[in-house]
Amino acid sequence: MKPIEIQDLLEYRYLSGLALSPDNRHIAFVVQQAASDQNSYIGSLYLYDTVSQTTRMLTSGGREKSFFWLDGSTILFPGLRDPELRKKKAQGEPWTAFYAIDIRGGEACEHMRIPLEVISAKPLDSRRFVLLARTNSTLPDFHALSQEEQAAYLREGKDYTVLDEIPYCSNGRGYTSKWRQRLYFYDRSSGELRPITGELENVSFYQVQGEEVLYISSTYREKYNLTSALTRYHIQRGSHQVLVEDGVYKMEYAGFWGEEIFLAATDMKRYAMNESPNFYWVREGRLVLLAENDFSIHSSMTLDCKLGGGSGFSLEGDAFSYITTRGGSDYIATLSQDGRISLLGRDNGSIECFARGKEGEYYFIGTRGTRLQELYCLRDGVETQLTACNEEYRNSHTVCEPVYFPIEKKGLRLDGWVIPPADFDECRVYPGILSIHGGPKTAYGAAFLHEMQVLAAKGYFVFYVNPRGSDGRGDAFSDIRNQFGRVDYEDFMDFTDQVLEAYPQIDRERLGVTGGSYGGYMTNWIIGHTHRFACAVSQRSISNWITKILTTDIGYYYNADQVGGMPWPDPTPLWDCSPLKYAGQVKTPTLFLHSDQDFRCWMAEGLQMFTALKLHGVQTRLCLFHGENHELSRSGTPRHRIRRLKEMTDWFQKYLE
């Protein structure tokens, strides 16, 4: 068996976007794999036949990363197979082409070309569609300009950016002032293309049924707020009916459930922004409670071996189904029309997306145990693996199994895990690394994590815990507002103490600590409050809550909500929980990893801490990745992901071995 190495991420296959055909016979999904020569990921559509129980590749263009079913035998997917259109898109022209492929055979052919930057599409029938597109009301109608005006517009657009609202940026999308996600109706036969929503209205979720569209949106001009409106739109009549006014509820899902309108939303009164949604019926302009809910309705699992998305909801027949994280695992949860919530599946890993079959079975993409992603079927409580996309890799490499290691604190259980090093010998002594997840409202589990497997293969103990603030244990457990750096710090230190006591093979003098995002914040905090770690790797971190609030995409609402408000009139509470305040106490050699397009935790956070440590004579280094964003460790370009892990392992080797 081979050890897991850094570059093995080039061999992994990443599954996403699962969708059942209308007749329930076929499951289509996307498979992506890193292409080192192109420094990108190539994607293809795959098809699983539920009758013959076989899997085959459907497309081979290398650029297919999303799709939808048009009917029982036809799939539509966006593509840039026309070189001329590819050139126009590269220059900045808003175009989207969709290709159709018959799963029974034949080549993909261009089906429709739309003069918009389309994000997603849902069919009303074979010729009419509802589109979600990215638009900017301050920009001219590009396709109405003359060729000379188009050329001038494209040149000028590269010279400067005007910002006149907040947030003015978004991680992964760049500067976003006046950019919105807008709904359109499109008729392929007539060419009719008309907007459904307003120029300044941003749509976060939509569903179609018959001639109706149900969507969640917010309209803003100067400042985005968290609350949304729920609106019903009739295609033929062109009429809008606001079902729930904006200003009260943060909404996550809405759908047609029989004759009723169903909504998952929270008023944020008890646990503020992080409060999980309750489930409601929408009746005559008011919400009628169907069921209270204390858990997220999406996966919060920390993974670094997935790409792409997919649906995490299903509203079929007698149940609303969704993904939820409980403890250190994902489940499919079902809500009945009488308000009962049930969990399906096993405590066994992550679930990224799913679809419900006509017989009540569920097909999902996930990581089970320490396996990489595969397609599974959950039927009558039994999970069956359907694909073997990553089995060849698993069967030829040594995977180090995490050991569940919970600790008790004053009657409170914290879920933790320890991964012993490869070829572990109880008579030897090894260095150890504390790893901290982001969020903090996310969760670790026993699922496969490439970074941790690489470290274990190199001879390190890796240990990690879900401290207070993590997801999967209910809203009260997740709520650490105004306590950052206090209760969580205690949990990390207590967990480390108990791991060291249980594993005398870990050398107390050779401990490292690392984490990203909130984990980077805690890494910065830890090195300013203890010298027990011989070195640290701080990734996409936070060092100064004042600058974090004022320079990032979620700073003015999310971070202010979580750590104590704005810098005015008194910045002291924010400064007191900022690691930068304690930089003068740091002695730990620290590596900073950051991306220059990270608008979630801007590079100024890493640069400030790096500069402070340099000024105080601490051994430090910063590696800044150009063109990457907050998702570097998960979906960054292959070469940068490899370099990131090499920087990390070299730093640990230098100070721990």
From TrEMBL:
It is an enzyme of class 3 (hydrolase). Keywords: Hydrolase, Protease. One of its GO terms (molecular function) is serine-type endopeptidase activity. InterPro entries: 6-blade_b-propeller_TolB-like (IPR011042), AB_hydrolase_fold (IPR029058), Peptidase_S9_cat (IPR001375). It comes from the Bacteria. GO terms for biological process: proteolysis. Residues 448-656 form the Peptidase S9 prolyl oligopeptidase catalytic domain. Its EC number is 3.4.14.12. Belongs to the peptidase S9C family. This is Prolyl tripeptidyl peptidase. It comes from uncultured Anaerotruncus sp.
